[in-house]
Design a protein that fits this description.
The complex is a heterodimer. Chain A is mostly beta strands. Helix content of chain A is 0%, strand content 50%. Chain A is built from no helices and 11 strands. Chain A is globular. Chain A starts with a strand and ends with a strand. Chain B is 0% helix and 50% strand. In chain B, the strands form 3 sheets. In chain B, strands 2, 5, 6, 10, 11 and 12 form a 6-stranded mixed β-sheet that branches. By secondary structure, chain B is mainly β. Classes of the chains: A mainly beta, B mainly beta. At the A-B interface, strand 4 and strand 5 of A face strand 6 and strand 11 of B.
């Protein structure tokens, strides 16, 4: 089954404790992206990747890191989480980054930072 | 910069009522336009899309027409069902660009 998977689905952590949210897709998509969803703000793009070893900042990259060492995986890293990073996070992928006609979304990761 | 504006929600309708959710955008050139739907507890799913002016996207009874002259992409459905209750997001992808811009979302509740 074609899908985007994220782990964990729920995470409660404390300020400053490094964490990684994994994202994997099995559709051989070139383009992958991370978003955060906050009430009243919709989805805001954190980082995106056009292909392996190619990443770029979205609209809200501060406090986040990403890497794309393999085509299928695109982990999101929070080196020192803070309470303002409490949010619902979505990973998404698309066949091609040069013409993004449809994105496939993962189920989401709800992160709480206390 | 690129941006998407949607009507404020929540929108509450009775079953079989007509639905319109307004969406306007700001972008240079000719972006592609999308409507995504998010059911409770799930990720976003593509509902419909249009890639050039005057294109009409349609799916599951929903329609939206790409109007370049008014920079709009309003979502419509003639007769909503309880199962349409969800959050609807308008979005754009700039021509030749690599990022997506989403609107804030509009929550729709359909009552039996």
């Amino acid at each position: 089954e074609a899908q985007v998977t994220q782990n964990p689905r729920y995470l409660i952590t404390v300020t400053g404790k490094k964490l990684t949210v994994t994202c994997s897709q099995n559709m051989n998509h070139e383009y992958m992206s991370w978003y955060r969803q906050d009430p009243g703000l919709g989805l805001r793009q954190i980082y995106y990747s056009m292909n392996v070893e190619v990443t770029d900042k979205g609209d809200v990259p501060e406090g986040y890191k990403v890497s794309r060492k393999e085509k299928r995986n695109f982990p999101l890293i929070l080196e020192s989480p803070s309470p303002n990073q409490t949010s619902l996070y979505f990973c998404a992928s698309s066949l091609s980054g040069t013409s993004i006609l449809e994105q496939y979304f993962g189920p989401g990761t709800r992160l709480t930072v206390t | 910069g690129n941006s998407v504006t949607q009507m404020e929600g929540p929108v509450t309708l009775s079953e079989e009522a007509f639905l319109t959710i307004n969406c306007t955008y700001t972008a240079t050139g000719y972006p592609s336009l999308f409507w995504y739907v998010q059911y409770p507890g799930e990720g976003l799913q593509l509902l419909l899309k249009a890639t050039k002016a005057d294109d009409k996207g349609s799916n599951k009874g929903f329609e939206a027409t790409y109007r370049k002259e008014t920079t709009s992409f309003h979502l419509e459905k003639g007769s909503v069902q309880v199962s349409d209750s969800a959050v609807y997001f308008c979005a754009l992808s700039p021509f030749g660009g690599q990022n997506f811009v989403f609107g804030p979302g509009t929550r729709l509740s359909v009552l039996p």
